[in-house]
Write a structure and sequence with these properties.
The complex is a heterodimer of chains A (225) and B (320).
Chain A: E1 9-13, H1 18-23, E2 29-38, H2 41-49, H3 58-61, E3 64-66, E4 72-74, E5 80-82, H4 94-104, E6 108-111, H5 117-124, E7 130-134, H6 140-146, E8 147-154, H7 156-163, E9 165-178, H8 187-196, H9 199-202
Parallel strand pairs in A: 1-2, 2-3, 3-6, 6-7
Antiparallel strand pairs in A: 2-9, 4-5, 7-9, 8-9
Chain B: H1 4-20, H2 24-36, H3 40-59, E1 72-77, H4 85-103, E2 130-135, E3 141-147, E4 155-159, H5 164-180, E5 189-196, H6 199-211, H7 222-236, E6 251-259, E7 266-273, E8 278-284, E9 290-293, H8 311-319
Parallel strand pairs in B: 1-2, 5-6
Antiparallel strand pairs in B: 1-3, 3-8, 4-7, 5-7, 8-9
Helix pairs in contact in B: 1-4, 2-3
Classes of the chains: A alpha/beta (225), B alpha+beta (320).
Chain lengths: 225, 320
């Protein structure tokens, strides 16, 4: 098996300091210690649209928002079993991010597949925030191992297990890959550009189909998001 | 006579096994790809996934938190007898799903599509889906489940006979490129291609081709088998690996299934079964014993038949 030659590995204590965040380089691999919280559309709607209050002291406890729905269940003794933990695709939450970062002071977003490319420069970088991507996707068992306990869970009854805000105490929680930096560069965007260079060649000699679909793009350099 | 409790046990067990243990054919497929992968990042991702399969099996925890939309494919032998009737069978499958959701645990993904309400047990209207098929000369029942994340990597297009193989290849590339970027399709994937049938059959065939055939399996029609290999190579020549990083690991294998279709059309569907290609099958024998495996063996010669008659049925008719 070819051993991975590249990525530098970093261990990060949470809440992450501005200096630590500034040192993260695109493509390096990160493991986390501290508290991360999950929030996705259910939580964003509750807080940003319906105006519900954030849990007390959120920003001191954690500045890491994980786009995640855990495979979890409530046990007879009231505790929670956390099985697999993986991310859900982040780009769908793009419209909430600016407000959410402003409201919570969150500095690290963890998710799947990154944000639309303009968000890095317009939304994340100006707020001192970066994006870490889960690997794979996803390394549910490895991340599940890194969750040491459930510190708290908010809105569980109203939003259900998948959409609730879980606060996980984590240790050596990873791997994640650094997707973006404070300048607004994105690894996904860079790699996508390199892939795009060769796409036209693939279609050479293949005649176009008789039927096109209304609204379909002919520019394959575009992303579907 | 197969008892309903045995059916429920088999269904519960395959839910657990699918969530935790990566099928060996897929594991070997990924190991083979790591050796060939030249992209550093893409290779790192594959290596991490191999670690993850190991961690899942060691810890007995789901390899991926998106345990998909739990569902079943059931194949009933002509001579199988079971005590609870078909509605009892379906009730056993629903009960097993709810118990496994709590115990494994599986993510309770199932919600009402409009009200987003849920029962926290993956049960609801039309959920879990149960697809039935039948097998001549058999007294067993096969219960298969698949856990597959559901949002990206699948598409459908109505092509026409004049579009030919070019049309299929273009659509294949379109789908893999669109959903391969950033790894939305969670590649490298087992890519299933459904060709023909009605529109809904076309989707179904492609899904089954992706999810219910093992890596390395070839369609019995030699020309279709050749097209499977050609599409696999085409996918791996895009230049994209795991997570959409530069690389070559896009398609672990390609499976094509066909169905007779409208004379004017050639509907095609493409489905990607992800880096956590999870499936498990239980065979319940007539004596109530259960044997587990990871290859569903869904597409039998009987399922791909072209004729009215089937040899064993002719024999049955004669003796009646």
């Amino acid at each position: 098996m070819a051993e991975p030659t590249g990525p530098r590995q970093v261990r990060l204590k949470l809440p992450a300091s501005p200096e630590d965040i500034a040192r993260l380089e695109l493509g390096c691999v990160v493991y986390l210690d501290g508290v991360v919280y999950t929030a996705r559309e259910g939580v964003y709607e509750k807080v940003l649209v319906k105006g519900e209050k954030l849990p007390d002291g959120l920003s001191e406890i954690s500045n890491v928002n994980f786009h995640c729905s855990p495979a979890a269940s409530r046990q007879a003794d009231g505790s929670y079993a956390i099985g697999g933990v993986t991310a859900t695709a982040s780009f769908r939450f793009s419209k909430y991010m600016a407000d959410w970062l402003d409201r919570t002071g969150t500095k690290i977003i963890i998710g799947k597949a990154g944000m639309p490319r303009e968000d890095y420069q317009k939304v994340l970088a100006p707020r001192g925030a970066v994006y870490l991507t889960t690997v794979g996707y996803g390394t549910g068992a490895l991340l599940g191992r890194g969750v040491k306990s459930v510190r708290d869970v908010h809105w569980l009854d109203e939003l259900g297990i998948a959409q609730a805000m879980w606060m996980f105490e984590v240790e050596n929680f990873g791997p994640f890959i650094v997707d973006s930096d404070l300048v607004g560069n994105s690894l996904f965007a860079q790699q996508g550009d390199l892939v795009n260079e060769k796409i036209a060649l693939l279609y050479e000699g293949l005649k176009p189909p008789a039927l096109h679909r209304y609204g379909e793009t002919d520019d394959r350099k575009k992303e579907v998001m | 006579m197969i008892e309903n409790a045995t059916i429920e046990k088999a269904a519960y067990d395959v839910m657990t096994k699918a969530a935790i243990d990566i099928p060996n054919d897929y594991l070997e497929g990924i190991r083979g790809m790591v050796d060939l992968e030249t992209g550093d990042l893409s290779a790192f991702v594959l290596k991490a996934m191999l670690d993850n399969y190991e961690a899942a099996t060691e810890d007995r925890r789901p390899m991926c938190a998106d345990t998909g939309l739990p569902r079943y494919w059931v194949k009933v032998g002509d001579n199988a007898r079971f005590s609870g009737g078909f509605t009892g069978f379906e009730r056993a499958l629903r009960s097993a799903t709810a118990r496994a959701t709590q115990d494994v645990p599986l993510r309770p993904n199932r919600v009402h599509p409009l009200w987003r309400t849920e029962h926290n047990n993956n049960i609801g209207i039309n959920a879990p889906e149960v697809e039935w098929s039948f097998e001549p000369d058999a007294d067993w029942i096969d219960v298969t489940t698949v856990h597959k994340g559901g949002l990206f990597g699948t598409d459908y297009r109505m092509l026409f006979p004049g579009d030919g193989l070019d049309g299929i290849k273009r659509f294949f590339l379109d789908t893999l490129i669109a959903f391969g970027k950033r790894g939305l399709a969670c590649q490298p994937a087992i890519v299933g291609v459904g060709i023909g049938g009605s529109k809904d059959t076309c989707m179904q065939l492609g899904k089954q081709a992706a999810c219910l055939r093992a890596v390395g399996d070839r369609n019995p029609d030699p020309k279709i088998a050749e097209l499977e290999m050609e599409l696999k190579e085409l996918g791996n020549s895009i230049g994209m690996g795991a997570m959409g990083f530069i690389g070559s690991s896009m398609v672990v294998d390609c499976h094509i299934e066909v169905g007779f279709t409208h004379t004017g059309g050639m509907p095609v569907s493409v489905h990607t079964f992800c880096l956590s290609s999870r499936r498990a099958t239980a065979r319940i024998h007539a004596d109530g014993s259960i044997a587990y495996r990871s290859d569903p063996q869904w597409f039998t010669p009987y399922m791909r038949r072209e004729t009215i008659e089937w040899p064993s049925q002719q024999a049955l008719d004669k003796s009646a």
